Predict the structure.
Amino acid sequence: MLTYFLCLVLFCVGFYAILRKRNIIKIIIGIVICEYAINLFLILFAYRMNGRSPLYSPNQGITNMVDPLPQALAMTAIVISLATTALLVGIAIRIYEKYGTFDITKINRLKG
Amino acid sequence: MQLIPLLIILPLGAAFFISLAGKNRDKLCDIFSIVITFSLFALSLFFVFNAKNSATPLIYKVGGWGLPGGIILVLDGLSVFMLAVINFIAFIINIFSIDYMKKFTDKYKFYTLFMLMLGGMNGVVITGDIFNLFVFYEVASIASYALVAFGTEKEELEASMKYTVMGVVGSLFILLGIAFLYAYTSTLNMAEIASLLAQNGINSAAIFVSVLFLVGFGIKSAIVPFHAWLPDAHPAAPAPISAMLSGIFIKSLGVYTLCRIFYNVFGASSTLTHLFMFLGALSIIVGGVLALGQSDIKRLLGYSSISQVGYMILGFGIGSPLAIAGALLHLVNHSVFKSLLFLNAGSLEYATGTRNLEQLGGLRTKMPVTSATSLAASMSISGIPPFAGFFSKLLIIAACIKSGYIGYGIIAIIGAIFTISYILKFQKYTFFGQLKEMNKNIREVPILMRIPMIILALICVFGALLILPKAADTFLRPAEESLSKGTTYADLASQVSYEK
């Protein structure tokens, strides 16, 4: 139970960074932390107590394996988050070239 | 149906091919992308007639694997309906972008991202697996984040940053929702999830997941508390992409997914339908009021999109067959006239170099085609009979009153009045009035930009024919039935169980 709670805490840390920080790089780090928290959650609920790795071999029954599907989901989610993070960092670099700052309160040309 | 995966393979393969071979070969990219989008459009029309003739939804098992574990692609009434709309608008916009995108460098990158976005949207609409839906959703979203920043000027980058951060938070919620849903039901297939949820009843876990999905998909469909990205992202993108985003992107990734998940998988509870109606009415009013005060054409049209999506959500929320038919018809109409209006805004920007309403005026004589087509779109969006927009709004308002929600009906009528006011503002400041001195020498846009506008304008005029019985039976009714039948979507699961 404690691990699930810590996973929630990790998510909240990331979410706090997205909502409250003014530096774009810190916001991106917040997003990455949130993604890690969700990937951790996927792995956590797939785990069985004293489970073994989900490899099938003829002389072993399919008992007490951890669920392999969420692991595959986590892999896919990591690839997707890599793409978004790369894009976000790319945009952040271009923003720094144009505005000379990472502070979102100073990047405010769009209003209304 | 062995042709179903082509809807995803063609655009994704085209994106791959163009990114490899398209550098400095703009002509090749133009022709190749037109061929691809046209064949996708032809394919989706083929599926419209095919799905009508078959009694059960068309199904394709990816790799021959059925349930459990396999991914299935499903074409039911709603999917083929969305496919036809998406691929038609994409084809038209592709013609428009040939000339419009000449002022940007690296046209092949534009086409790569365009095709990725199209592939993602087609994938979202036809998949029957919830994680697969998430993957295609992300493919389309990431392409759209990059396309919004395509100009790489100050405004574009800022808008893209804002949009990306909001979009990523939305997809985090969706992923979290999928994780909870898998932990609860141990399957990812939407039909199986639907049948398991129907057996176990809606408990607190399911409610928590629905809230996560409502936030996640609500951000993409830009219903009001989650709309902040849209008025920034739409003006920043190049005009064809604004038309794509507003015309089909927010509908396939937002409205379609909301309807599919909440009507077919979770089953519409009365709390949910009331929430839909409330959010829809809120969007109608807030979007309309904010659109009135804008002086940037595309920003005005962006707020107008929020308002019009509100009509669809309101229609889906009421949930009677009449209201759903009205909302679906409004979806088609909105994708036609809003794309047209954004293309008009693009033509104005192409000819005059500005989007500011105060610097335009009197362009009716200088740009006759743009002016006439935008007049048709404006008539349609403000609901003047006999244009198509009149009938969809009439159906939604009539359904409100018939189902006893008089208050929401009145809000919809007030929203229509707002629509007329901001569209009149747009028309008056651009095409009527005195011609400005600096606009003396402008000319009409090239022929390849005129043709798509004329086609869309003709559909605005004749689109009302869609509600004739014969056309409605092919196109509108199957889509409406697949939503109003609700969780009978779960019956699909029995058809695709693993055979060996």
User: Anything to note?
Assistant: Residues 154-185 of chain B form the longest helix (32 residues). The mean pLDDT of chain B is 89. The beta strands of chain B are 58-61, 72-75.
